[in-house]
Backbone:
């Protein structure tokens, strides 16, 4: 039995849903925090649970390099290794292979690249990327795609898209033959209500060309995946262009399957995309921004190191009920940040994640009530 | 009403006690985590509370430089600023002024030094050190002493000790006149059972000379403080010498007042000193070691980055019940550390503090039962 997606309520193009995975249910639309090397930076897993995180993302490229897929498999897969009993999604490694490595060679077979850790040479293909993700034991895994660079000519975007489609087919074939080789397959026999193997999602590419995006979506749907991502966005294009590419793909993607936009976004973006019918999103922004002292609040973004907060006795966000806002002042958070204290990363991250997760909770609530106008206009607590 | 110290049980020279401060009761013997700049590095305050921390230490030197005493006072003193409702002890700044600053000039008046942050020039005296600590709002503050360098000749140790005694008298005089100028004085009117002002402890010096230590203790006792610290230890001397100096001072210090050895120690040390009659200790060791990957366990110290832990599925300490040991494996902790992940500092610190606090809890329990032999031999869970 594979992943299940149930749509519950609708408000325009937006919908709430429940995605049932081998490691529990996810309420959509969902924002997935990024846990690059099996850790959401500075956040203990019990805090993530308390914040209501139901699914987090791991990066196959990084984990493949360190500590290695077999090490993780032997330690119970990612779930056992990082002691996370809820859902995990892994990306295929494609994005980092393309973005982190200047010395790489792309052929029809796959990508040869050098480790950013020690310069050693490695090779990723659709098959090996599937093998790695299955070995890591994620609940949802991604097809191995080519992330089209930006900007790209129409010819380049087409060629890239075509290769992604060929690689998607190869990903699917390998996956079909090996999906049960994951580290927790036997465990799910104990609970027949849960899916017993991971799910593989396809990825729409096509650069910034609406016709290529449409074609990529149609031909990816022909391959019949249980869920579809829209990749290659948030790579420097305008917000309007991002929305246009998302809207184009959403016109084609099946309504009864989950829609995942990779690598987005700012708080106002994730609300907007959810309103358009996007079900899943991931981004390093809340966690990375936190470590740089940028806090997302209902009053907008604040840069906590600013001297104006040195004696500010208010919470980071007066409308936030998280552990940080209910205990600490802006003055204290500023002090921690300018003093380069490790607690700064912990508290800033905790708040930003709470803000993002509360934002999505508000969106789901508004969809259930049939009215997104409040959250879209920002009158409900959003950045 | 000032601080109260009640002795409850005894086992040889050891005793359990309750120290009642303006911000609650402390069970002794106690180990006080160090929260240098108003934060115990990487530990949110709610975790400290959960671990059972009843008192933590702040460094006046650092807080005076950043964010500044008046800023802290205006934000409710350290308790308000760092949102810590329990007890706080501050040192006088003497140690850092001497140890962190090569460019310093000592006169009878006090010490001129340069900030390690920006090189600006500052001056600390017994009076200003009392003023700073009162302004920071600690429950227990320390006399401004001269930390005798090590090694020191007998003449140098005597001269230093004599100045510390003169400075102790000046500390006490200033304190007596200004003790109620703390940030929370009015609040304690609401609870007449708690002391309404901080307590000032004296500090025994004398280098590594038993006769000077004895004399310093006697003459500090003549000044009549509500508690006494033994300073200038753990500065490079042998463990045997440390114990000899502590034992010498303890022979003289009044039995009915709390005894505080500053800056110690390893787990086996803090147990040993508690057995000798020491009531309070502080040290950066558990927290600093944690950030360097050194974990204290019932099986001894482990350096978590060691390759032998790469696939170790056991907890850091099989006999520890802390949140870290009940959830994460050594393999995961090692991965976090070698990957330079911020969560490494969080989890390692959480475990080491749990280990230290559990160690002291075991010691108090053993004293209550009248038998320290188990904890001293290490048969009870200790490093």
Residues:
């Amino acid at each position: 039995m594979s992943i299940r997606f149930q749509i519950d309520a609708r408000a325009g193009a937006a919908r709430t849903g429940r995605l049932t995975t081998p490691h529990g249910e996810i309420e959509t639309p969902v924002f997935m925090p990024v846990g690059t090397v099996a850790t959401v930076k500075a956040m203990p897993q019990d805090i993530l649970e308390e914040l209501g995180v139901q699914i987090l993302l791991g990066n196959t490229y990084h984990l493949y390099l360190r500590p290695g897929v077999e090490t993780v498999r032997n330690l119970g897969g990612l779930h056992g290794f990082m002691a996370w009993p809820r859902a995990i999604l892994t990306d295929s490694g494609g994005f980092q292979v393309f973005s982190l490595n200047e010395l790489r060679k792309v052929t029809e077979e796959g990508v040869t690249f050098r480790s950013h850790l020690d310069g050693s040479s490695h090779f990723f293909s659709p098959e090996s990327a599937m093998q790695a993700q299955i070995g890591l034991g994620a609940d949802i895994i991604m097809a191995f795609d080519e992330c089209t660079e930006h900007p790209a000519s129409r010819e380049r975007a087409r060629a890239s898209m075509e290769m992604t489609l060929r690689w998607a087919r190869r990903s699917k074939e390998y996956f079909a033959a090996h999906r049960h080789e994951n580290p927790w397959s036997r465990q799910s026999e104990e609970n027949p209500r849960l899916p017993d193997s991971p799910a593989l999602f396809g990825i729409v590419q096509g650069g910034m060309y609406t016709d290529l995006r449409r074609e990529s979506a149609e031909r990816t749907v022909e391959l019949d995946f249980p869920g579809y991502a829209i990749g290659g966005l948030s790579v420097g294009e305008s917000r309007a262009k991002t929305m246009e590419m998302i809207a184009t793909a959403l016109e084609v993607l099946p309504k009864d399957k989950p829609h995942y936009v990779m690598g987005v976004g700012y708080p106002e973006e994730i609300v907007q995309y959810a309103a358009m019918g996007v079900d899943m999103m991931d981004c390093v922004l809340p966690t990375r921004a936190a470590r740089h002292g940028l806090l997302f609040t209902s009053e907008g973004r604040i840069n906590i190191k600013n001297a104006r907060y040195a004696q500010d006795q208010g919470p980071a966000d007066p409308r936030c009920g998280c552990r940080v806002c209910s205990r600490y002042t802006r003055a204290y958070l500023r002090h921690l940040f300018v003093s380069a204290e490790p607690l700064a990363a912990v508290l800033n991250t905790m708040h930003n994640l709470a803000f993002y997760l509360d934002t999505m909770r508000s969106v789901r609530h508004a969809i259930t009530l049939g009215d997104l106008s409040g959250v879209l206009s920002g009158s409900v607590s959003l950045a």
